[in-house]
Design a protein that fits this description.
Layout: H1 16-37, H2 41-56, H3 58-66, H4 68-79, H5 94-104, E1 106-108, E2 111-113, H6 115-122, H7 125-136, H8 140-152, H9 154-177, H10 183-189, H11 205-211, H12 215-220, H13 233-247, H14 253-270, H15 276-299, H16 301-313
Antiparallel strand pairs: 1-2
Helix pairs in contact: 1-2, 2-3, 4-9, 7-14, 8-9, 9-13, 9-15, 9-16, 13-14, 13-15, 15-16
Length: 314
C-alpha cells in the first residue's frame, strides 16, 4: 500500500474522496473552459477519457494520473486562445522575415529567397507526402514514448514528462514576449498585421489534397495562436524524445527517433510553418528546458522529493 500525498493505491475505485475529486476537476474544468473559450465537444471528450481511466481500474488510474502532466500542457495551450499574445507585445513580421533572409537566404535566379520561398518553388508530391507524415508524428511519438517509459521505468517517465512540460512553459513565455508570424502569413498577407487571421495549413494542405482528407485542416482550424511561430515547439518535442531515448539506451530505435527529428525540422520549413530561425529557437528551447530540469533535480532537494512522490503515486 502506498499512501504518498494521501493516495492509497489499494483503496476502492469509487470511494467518496475519488468521486469528489474527479467531480470537482470535471465541473471546474468545464466551467472555466466555458467562461474562457466557450464550450467545445473535445472538452467533454477529454473529461470522459479522464473519468473512464480514473474509475476503470487501479492500473488505468495510475496511468491517467501520470499522464495528467500532458493534460495540464494541453489545457494551458488551449486556454491561450483567451489571451492572444499580440495583445501584450508587437508581432514580429517583416523583421523576422528579413533576418531569416539575411542569415539563411538562398541565392537563385538573381534573387535571395528564404528557405521557405525556395521550397515553395521546388515543391513536389513526394516531399508533400513524406513531410506530411513526419509532421503527423509530433503528437503520437512523444505520447507513445511516454507510455513506453511509464511501463518500463517510472522515474524516467516522470523526468521525461516534467521536461516536456517545462520546455512547453518556456516556449509559451517566449510566445508572449516575442509574438511572431509564420512564413505562410507573409506569403499570403505581406507584412501588415491582421489580428483576425485564422489558422492555416500552409504547405500541409497539399498532403490533405493528395489523400483527399482533412487531417491538417481540422488540426489547424483549432490553432491557439497564429502568431506563435517562434520557438517551433514542433521541433523541440522530437529532440526531447531523442535525448531520453539515448539516455535510456534504446539502441536502434534511436535511429528512428533521429530520422523523425530531422524530418520534422525539414517539414516545418518545407511547408512554410516555420523559418529556420524558429526551428533553431525550438531546439534551443528543448536544450534549455532539458538542462534546467536536470539542474533543478540535482540542486533542489524539495523538487527531488516531489518527483519521488509522483513516482510512488503512479
Amino acid at each position: 500500500m502506498d499512501v504518498s500525498l494521501g493516495i492509497d493505491k489499494s483503496r476502492k475505485l469509487f470511494d467518496r474522496k475519488s468521486l469528489f475529486l474527479m467531480g470537482g476537476v470535471t465541473i471546474g474544468y468545464l466551467l472555466l473552459s466555458f467562461l474562457l473559450i466557450g464550450f467545445k465537444p473535445e472538452q467533454l471528450f477529454l473529461m470522459s477519457v479522464l473519468n473512464i481511466c480514473y474509475f476503470s481500474s487501479q492500473v488505468s488510474r495510475r496511468f491517467i494520473t501520470g499522464f495528467s502532466i500532458f493534460i495540464v500542457y494541453w489545457v494551458i495551450f488551449d486556454y491561450m486562445k483567451a489571451f492572444p499574445n499580440y495583445r501584450y507585445a508587437p508581432v514580429h513580421i517583416e523583421s523576422l522575415y528579413q533576418l531569416e533572409r539575411s542569415m539563411f537566404g538562398i541565392h537563385t535566379g538573381g534573387k535571395v529567397l528564404t528557405p521557405n520561398e525556395y521550397w515553395l518553388v521546388q515543391q513536389n508530391s513526394f516531399l508533400d507526402v513524406i513531410t506530411g507524415f513526419f509532421y503527423l508524428t509530433w503528437i503520437p511519438v512523444p505520447l507513445g514514448f511516454a507510455a513506453y517509459l511509464f511501463f518500463k521505468d517510472k522515474k524516467q517517465f516522470v523526468y521525461f514528462s516534467c521536461t516536456f512540460l517545462l520546455v512547453n512553459l518556456i516556449g509559451f513565455v517566449i510566445y508572449y514576449v516575442c509574438p511572431a508570424a509564420p512564413p505562410w502569413y507573409v506569403q499570403q498577407y505581406g507584412f501588415q498585421f491582421n489580428a483576425a487571421t485564422p489558422g492555416n495549413t500552409a504547405g500541409l494542405g497539399r498532403f490533405d489534397a493528395f489523400f483527399h482528407v482533412h487531417i491538417f485542416q481540422s488540426l489547424y482550424a483549432k490553432s491557439s495562436n497564429v502568431f506563435a511561430a517562434i520557438p517551433s515547439l514542433h521541433s523541440a518535442y522530437p529532440l526531447i524524445v531523442f535525448y531520453y531515448g539515448l539516455k535510456n539506451r534504446l539502441g536502434k530505435i534511436n535511429i528512428l527517433f533521429g530520422v523523425i527529428m530531422a524530418g520534422i525540422w525539414f517539414a516545418a520549413v518545407y511547408n512554410s510553418h516555420h523559418y529556420v530561425l524558429d526551428v533553431v529557437a525550438g531546439v534551443c528551447c528543448a536544450l534549455a528546458g532539458t538542462w534546467l530540469f536536470r539542474r533543478i533535480v540535482q540542486r533542489e532537494n524539495m523538487v527531488t522529493k516531489f518527483v519521488q512522490k509522483i513516482i510512488n503515486i503512479i
